[in-house]
Amino acid sequence: MKTYTIGWFIEIDAESPEHAALLALQIQRDPLSLATVFSVQDETGDIRNVDVQPDPTTTTH
What we know:
61 residues; alpha+beta; 21% helix
């Protein structure tokens, strides 16, 4: 098994760092949120952006 470092980045206007973190947490936990892209770095330093939300326009059979 490999180890990965995961990042999720979003710009938020807020009154404080704590308020910004709480707003980001609300967005991340919202089941209807479109904020589903993560930056994934592997052990060699390679970084990929991974969208975990399936594309509704794509069908698989």
